[in-house]
Amino acid sequence: MSNNLTKRGFEFISENAIKTFFLLCAIVSVVTTIGIVLVLLIETTNFFREVSLKEFFLGFRWNPTIKPTSFGVWPLLSGTLYFTFITALIALPVGLLSAVYLSEYSGRKIRSIIKPALEILAGIPTVVYGYFALVYITPLLRNLLPGIKTFNILSASIVVAIMIIPTVASISEDAIRAVPQSFRLAGLSLGITKFQVTASIILPASLSGILSSFILGLSRAIGETMAVTIAGGNLARLVNPLKPAEALLEPMQTMTAAMVEIGLSDITGNSTAYKSLFAVGFTLFLMTLTLNMVSQFIKNRYREKYK
Which CATH homologous superfamily contains domain 57-301? Predict the structure, then answer.
């Protein structure tokens, strides 16, 4: 009897210790997030004491380190959005079609090969993707597009699209496989083809998960740093809306690349240029936060519940 009580007491203490450990881990995560946001807010506030909101958000010239300095964020914002748009054109269709194939058409043996291969792509360091674009993709594209520059946004978009395909494919596949098998059988029993079942029944039923995968993939593309910095160049300029195709062949600077450039430049820690790094980072944080909130809203609003 005494041994049983001792054993139960030990199990009780162990259980409480494990709960406390998990609680501390959760608290560390929350405190770290709050700390990062507070640092961004404080430094961004200090920046806007020296640079007006009008100059930052409505300016069309970005040159924070060379006098005369200018802090207009539009060249960085347009470069980021243009780069993300090209990346989405490549990654989202490929990721979705990969998910459809893995879920609806591939056999178990083929899926066991392709699925891990996609996951390996997500584990490759981003700096490797950047050099891969610079050394292999750009020379290959030069054979098709002779006017392409060594640093260009097209190569950067291609490698980042490859990076986010696993995210889109994995989440989309989970959403598609969550649709009950009875939906597929009901469609086939009506005499329609497997493709029609997939296109008209399965994909609409898993739409919320697919859209969430798209937005999460785009969030990663917007926040990508090293691959874009290495392959895309560091030329802050506005995209000409009348000639968007020409911008593909030219170097461009995204918000993350600008932050890297500022961080590596020869500036003092209390200068306006240094503080602009946090202003750009906070703007980027708001963009990705908005995308994540939209993703969560779509997931909750259009989620299908099956019994």
Answer: MetI-like (1.10.3720.10)
